[in-house]
Amino acid sequence: MANVIFCADDYALNTPISQAIVDLIAHNRLQATSCMTQASDWPIHGTTLRELQLSKPLAQIGLHFNLTHDFGDGMLFLPLGQVMQKAWLRTLSKSQIEQTLIYQWQRFIDVMGRAPDFVDGHQHIHQFPVIRDVLINFLVAQNFTGWIRSLSDTVITPRFWFKSKMLQFLGAQALTRLSETVSIQQNQKFAGIYDFSETTPYPTLTQFWLDHANSIRQTQIPTRKSRIDHSLLIMCHPAVDVSDLSDTIAAARVREYQYLSSDQFLKDCSDRHITLAPTPSGAL
């Protein structure tokens, strides 16, 4: 059996997203979600998630560290292009990044009553220069025992080769080396990258990723000591409807939700002998 974890990003960004994620966790279709704690309704959505976790304790809840979505709360915000430019020029303010991280981290704790199980980044900014240094130093100071999302070993879908490679080149290996230096765990393999377009059949794409999970198991690729022992982490972005007109990928989110909540999804997993299981803790 290949062990796979589906992780939904953007929890609390809007109500349709949160509703989809709660439903999928409740029906054992998702094993993790990462939260945007700057959202004004985070206390409401977070409370729902906390209560759900009491009945679904195996679902892991993480922090979706954000610098590129403006919540109007006065915290550091820059469009993605500017974050990238300033990160590589090393002109980002470490103190502002840390202040924003502390703010988001504390809002998570205020609602969930504990630290996140893992950390990733909105638009993968957690692996960028400067940002990754601030993040790792902060996690070390917090005696963090969870894991960080890694894109170092991304499943390359031929149609999205360029996008996958580009995201890897934006600091994935550097983040992995930094995490290993301080013994913070990361996932082994990663998937979920595509263009969110209507012409991309999400079920077919997911079947490709699940097939790859089995190939990992069959070849028994050894993992680094700081990699968590599961075959594949698959990122997803579900939502129940397209009512949030500001959400540019809302239609793709609905297509993801429809597939992940379907009988076909369970059959696709069963046919490939996939076990849907959360990332084990203390797997070093």
TrEMBL record:
Coiled coil: none annotated. InterPro entries: Glyco_hydro/deAcase_b/a-brl, YdjC-like. Its cofactor is Mg(2+). GO terms for molecular function: deacetylase activity; hydrolase activity; metal ion binding. Transmembrane segments: none annotated. The keyword Transmembrane helix does not apply. It comes from the Bacteria. GO terms for biological process: carbohydrate metabolic process. Keywords: Carbohydrate metabolism, Hydrolase, Magnesium, Metal-binding. CDD domains: YdjC_like_3. SUPFAM superfamilies: Glycoside hydrolase/deacetylase (SSF88713). PANTHER family: CARBOHYDRATE DEACETYLASE, YDJC DEACETYLASE FAMILY MEMBER. This is ChbG/HpnK family deacetylase.
